[in-house]
Amino acid sequence: MSNKKWVMLPMLALLVLGLWPQSRSNAAGEQLFVETGWRVGGHVLEFWQRSGGLAVFGLPLGPEQRERTGDGTYALQRFERARVELHPEKRAPYNVELGRVGADLLARQQRNWSSEIDEQLLTGQCRSFPETGRQVCGPFLDYWLSHGLDLGDEGVSYRESLALFGLPLTGTRMETNSSGDRVITQWFERARFEYHPKNPQPYTVLLGRLGAELSGEPPPLPQPAIAILPQTSILQGHTLTVEVKSSEATGVSGMLGSTALAFTRRDGSWLAIGAVHGLQQPGPLQVRVEAALADGRTATGRATIQVIDAGYPVEYINLPPDVRDSIANNREALEAENARVRAIWPVVTPQRLWNGRFIMPTEGVLVSSYGGRRSYNGGPVSSFHEGIDIANAVGTPIIAPAAGNVVLAGTGFIARGGAVILDHGWGIHTGYWHMEEVLVSEGQFVEQGQVIGLMGARGMVTGPHLHWELRIGPHSADPLEWINREWPPSQPGSRGKAMPR
Ligand SMILES: [Zn+2]
Description:
By secondary structure, the chain is of the alpha+beta class. It has ten helices and 35 strands. Zinc ion binds at residues 368, 385, 387, 389, 467.
């Protein structure tokens, strides 16, 4: 018990000094090993990649943490075949060392190895190690000499091999390995060599999983179950929800294609609403999720949705000369306006402010649907319609289709005229452009049905109408889908095909 307290204190001290995060924020980045759910980062990852990777060290079996070993207390990380110890007081490449897992495991087995007789089961060239009175022969010597830590020497030097495997502690003898095979075995300070003569080269010498034998095999990693609602085939520019069922998860993150999903905990599962981009290529699109578990591991899961071509028409728009002049004369202001609006969409307010279906924000004629590909004044199809246009007389009231906070309200926007953006929570925003008058102000909370402005023909328009758009994170989606049904869907639909990693 006293050990634990003692271990905690230096970690706190390091945190205060700002030393601890250094290895994590290193430029080498971080890698998640989905097989065991642990991440490797910074100096350890650099070291792992440079000095042999999977074959030499195996997978990570725990986080980077301060721990007491047979040699002292270090920041270290355990792998299947090694224990990587950090020594920030030393300069690179000596700031990363390997623990003496071979010696530790022999000690744990209380094996009196120093008095064991070498059965000399391998023939070939031998090398004597007077420090321990042992010799290494044949294929084991070839392996020992041809592998090493990269300390900057030419080829693989003696000291580099020594740094990787250490000195031989035992001679050769037949032992039963963890797979139950009887194999010629020799123990080193940091490794256990096993001879498998029937294997093809270069697999005749294999390294024992000493790290795993020391720390114990990890419990199986639970795979989060992923459900896609309302179905796994989604039209371009349409909405979906991703539900992750994981009772153990303390946090869930995920991606729909290359777009981040924002998850919220709901009862025993985690839910995110996403939108398939209006121009997304039809075909399969990956959903990837990462669930953080209480024990520090990360469980990953994948599902695939099928993106269906929505068959959006191409619209040829002729902007009147005064609108074209306005674009040409206000490039900088337009850029600033677009940047201001773009910065709002990715903001995720954790609290959900809407409930049930949205209602239409105004009355009038639907003159342009969502998704139409647009060519302006005979030019190429360069964009698409990211909302719907409802036309009526100037002064027609515009109401909030759902409760939300006003995060943008103003008149005189070059392209958008009088404009309002509502934040409904969970990364869902709605925008209202071209208004004659704006009747709400930023920071105000509005109820569903509350008047927010009056229809107009302000900004870059050809006539009075409301342009209404709905955004899920950075992507627009057809807002009519939020009037026709409730989001998130309350009825369970088809399940996403959860695949093994
Ligand atoms: Zn529009």
